[in-house]
């Protein structure tokens, strides 16, 4: 089966102090239809830059994609001219964000925003598009869907606004949905509802979802597979069950150790000491080595992702040969 999204060897750079430095390097991942892959890691590790690169939203002079292939349903979209990318964005792939107002237009009714995408990409008339928008609002469970189509984003609560953004993203039935921390700003109950909705929609539409989060609890709820990022690289990837039962990379283990445990309230929260290295001062070898409790000879060399089992891989020579 062709992956809905296949990224191979992605490299994305930013200009800092007159020189270009990679924020994402040698990133490869496959996403099958009807699968959710969670991309996890601390703030600044390159999760959003990965998604923005796929969407073709990183371009000079601010940044540039200098390597790799991005295959959307088998077609390489890396380096497509902007006009061609525009016809793919919002159609075969779409993105949702933590803050819906990033994606929504404050001075346009929500119904027209869903309809606009259908008019541009599908050539529907306004009436046809609004009819479809109403069905989408019902699908994302916005109560009184028909009446609310004529309202503006500020008239919706935070959770309902997320549903509007999801409806806009799903308008053209994309093969790939990139979700960048879409539930992080919501309170826990609403977050659970939106996660449940996304799971249902994924199954119903057979979509591939790349779900960006720093929250391992959310990963457990929504993902089939996990890719852990550190300093612009994937350091471990595998099925959720394997990553949660046998985290191998010292960074993945540190992420788990940093989760507060309700069953052990006395235990001190084990935060990860030190900082992520800045883009212009990346170590040549393992990027986690300066913070790693298992550091030893060999860590000063570049690390490659090595298989631990058929689907589980780790970028650490110590963990790979333990
Ligand atoms: N426009 C930019 N110019 C320069 N550097 C940038 C730019 N955008 C992102 N970066 C850098 O790229 C790196 C990766 O950032 P990114 O936003 O992808 O991290 P993230 O993992 O998504 O974090 P967060 O969870 O905070 O969004 C960071 O070091 C960031 O400072």
TrEMBL record:
Lineage top rank: taxon: Bacteria
Record domain ABC transporter: where: 5-256
Entry-linked InterPro entries: AAA+_ATPase, ABC_Ni/Peptide_Import, ABC_transporter-like_ATP-bd, ABC_transporter-like_CS, Oligopep_ABC_C, P-loop_NTPase
Compartment list: Cell inner membrane
Membrane topology: Peripheral membrane protein
Key words, A-Z: ATP-binding, Cell membrane, Membrane, Nucleotide-binding, Transport
GO function term, MF aspect, one: ATP binding
Stated family: Belongs to the ABC transporter superfamily.
PANTHER family referenced in this protein's UniProt entry, alphabetically: DIPEPTIDE TRANSPORT ATP-BINDING PROTEIN DPPD (PTHR43297:SF2), OLIGOPEPTIDE TRANSPORT ATP-BINDING PROTEIN APPD (PTHR43297)
The protein's name: ABC transporter ATP-binding protein
């Amino acid at each position: 089966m062709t992956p809905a999204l296949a990224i191979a060897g992605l490299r994305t750079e930013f200009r800092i102090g007159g020189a270009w430095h990679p924020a994402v390097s040698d990133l490869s991942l496959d996403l099958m239809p009807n699968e959710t892959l969670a991309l996890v890691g601390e703030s600044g590790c390159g999760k959003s830059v990965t998604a923005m690169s796929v969407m073709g939203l990183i371009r000079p002079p601010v940044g540039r994609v200098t390597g790799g292939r991005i295959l959307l349903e088998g077609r390489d979209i890396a380096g497509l001219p902007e006009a061609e990318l525009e016809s793919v964005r919002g159609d075969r792939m779409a993105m949702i964000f933590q803050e819906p107002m990033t994606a929504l237009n404050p001075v346009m009714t929500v119904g027209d925003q869903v309809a606009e995408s259908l008019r541009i990409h599908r050539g529907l008339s306004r009436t046809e598009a609004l009819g479809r928008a109403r069905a989408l609002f019902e699908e994302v469970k916005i109560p009184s869907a028909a009446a609310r189509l004529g309202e503006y984003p500020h008239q919706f609560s935070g959770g309902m606004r997320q549903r509007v953004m999801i409806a806009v993203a799903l308008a053209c039935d994309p093969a790939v949905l990139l979700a960048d921390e879409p539930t992080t700003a919501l309170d826990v109950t609403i977050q659970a509802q939106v996660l449940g909705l996304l799971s249902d929609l994924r199954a119903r539409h057979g979509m591939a979802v790349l779900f960006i989060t720093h929250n391992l609890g959310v990963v457990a709820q929504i993902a089939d597979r996990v890719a852990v990022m550190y300093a612009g690289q994937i350091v471990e990837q595998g099925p959720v069950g394997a990553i949660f039962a046998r985290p191998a990379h010292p960074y993945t283990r540190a992420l788990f150790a940093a989760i507060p445990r309700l069953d052990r309230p006395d235990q001190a929260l084990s935060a990860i000491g030190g900082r992520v290295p800045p883009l212009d001062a990346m170590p040549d070898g393992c990027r986690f080595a300066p913070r790693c409790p298992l550091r030893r000879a060999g860590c000063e060399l570049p690390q490659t992702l090595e298989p631990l089992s058929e689907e589980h891989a780790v970028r650490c020579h110590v963990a790979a040969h333990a």
